[in-house]
């Protein structure tokens, strides 16, 4: 949530953050994901900062990572802590401040009406065209809070397009399914995904041929010929891996072959589509059990 000064006119998060004074123990970082309808994001730690009553022309969706924030919405005082998911609809007046001397740390997203409608329409394959309405402002849902946090961190870290797209899309779809008043998304996800061998085969062939490229979810769904939500679920059913996980695994296998041939890890990382060597290190060790450098050294010592 953001400081809007002393009025309740809708604010962009960028302008609001610019006029937010922070003390020496506080931090705030704002960034925008243009590919996701200009999605504004904020990660911050506040100890003394008090938000004035304000509104946004977007939704506010976020989670508390540590501590406790208290805020008033529609005359009700709420208290948000770890494991809670906060959802404030557009144009709804709210404030916010730390509860307790230790303050709080949080991650917030400000999805536009257009983004939320696009995700809901994709998840329901056109059956849900209205702006999503949720069952409450504050919901205790640790699993969903963790999902939102992972999506936010991926966007914050500048992760590959497919990872960021998939994590954000899945987080919002699960938000609709678990806490949306429209049961269309929940109804879709409650049913087992149908067999989609043709679309999945097309997606896999494309990923295999273009694994070193920064592929986004919309492009992959277009190749497969099915909506994004359906593609994610279908790939998980058919292969045991989501699109992002399958692509990462494909890149690790390519890097492994290069390392066996003596290629330095940094070169293998960039050639195989990883952001940098540290990205390769994490993915490689998670799947092979050792770091790329150690794997290369052992291969050369044979």
Automatic annotation (TrEMBL):
Annotated HTH araC/xylS-type domain ranges read: 201-298
Q: What is this protein called?
A: AraC-type DNA-binding protein
Superkingdom per UniProt: Bacteria
Report the GO molecular function annotations: DNA-binding transcription factor activity; sequence-specific DNA binding
Is Kinase set as a keyword in this record? no
Organism from which the protein derives = Pseudoxanthobacter soli DSM 19599
For this protein, the record's SUPFAM superfamilies field holds: Homeodomain-like (SSF46689), Regulatory protein AraC (SSF51215)
Enumerate the SMART domains for this protein.
Answer: HTH_ARAC
**Keywords on record:** DNA-binding, Transcription, Transcription regulation
């Amino acid at each position: 949530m953001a400081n809007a000064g002393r009025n309740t006119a809708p604010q962009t998060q960028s302008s609001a953050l610019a006029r937010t004074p922070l003390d020496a123990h506080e931090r705030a970082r704002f960034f925008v994901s243009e590919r996701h309808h200009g999605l504004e994001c904020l990660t911050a730690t506040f100890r003394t900062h008090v938000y004035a009553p304000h509104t946004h022309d977007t939704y506010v969706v976020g989670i508390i990572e540590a501590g406790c924030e208290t805020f008033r919405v529609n005359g009700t005082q709420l208290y948000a802590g770890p494991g809670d998911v906060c959802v404030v609809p557009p144009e709804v007046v709210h404030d916010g401040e730390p509860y307790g001397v230790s303050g709080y740390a949080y991650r917030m997203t400000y999805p536009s009406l257009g983004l939320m409608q696009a995700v809901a329409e994709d998840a329901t394959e056109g059956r849900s065209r209205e702006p999503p309405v949720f069952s409450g402002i504050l919901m205790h849902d640790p699993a969903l809070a963790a999902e939102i946090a992972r999506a936010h961190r991926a966007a914050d870290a500048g992760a590959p397009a497919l990872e960021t797209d998939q994590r954000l899309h899945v987080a919002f779809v699960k938000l609709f399914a678990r806490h949306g008043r429209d049961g269309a998304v929940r109804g879709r996800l409650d049913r087992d995904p149908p067999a989609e061998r043709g679309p999945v085969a097309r997606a896999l062939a494309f990923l295999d041929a273009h694994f070193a490229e920064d592929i986004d979810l919309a492009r992959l769904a277009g190749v497969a010929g099915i909506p994004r939500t359906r593609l994610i679920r279908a790939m998980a059913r058919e292969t045991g891996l989501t699109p992002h996980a399958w692509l990462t695994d494909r890149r690790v296998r390519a890097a492994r072959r290069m390392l066996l041939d003596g290629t330095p890890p940094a070169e293998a990382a960039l050639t195989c589509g990883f952001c940098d060597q540290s990205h390769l290190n994490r993915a490689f060790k998670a799947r092979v059990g050792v770091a790329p450098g150690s794997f290369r050294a052992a291969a050369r010592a044979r």
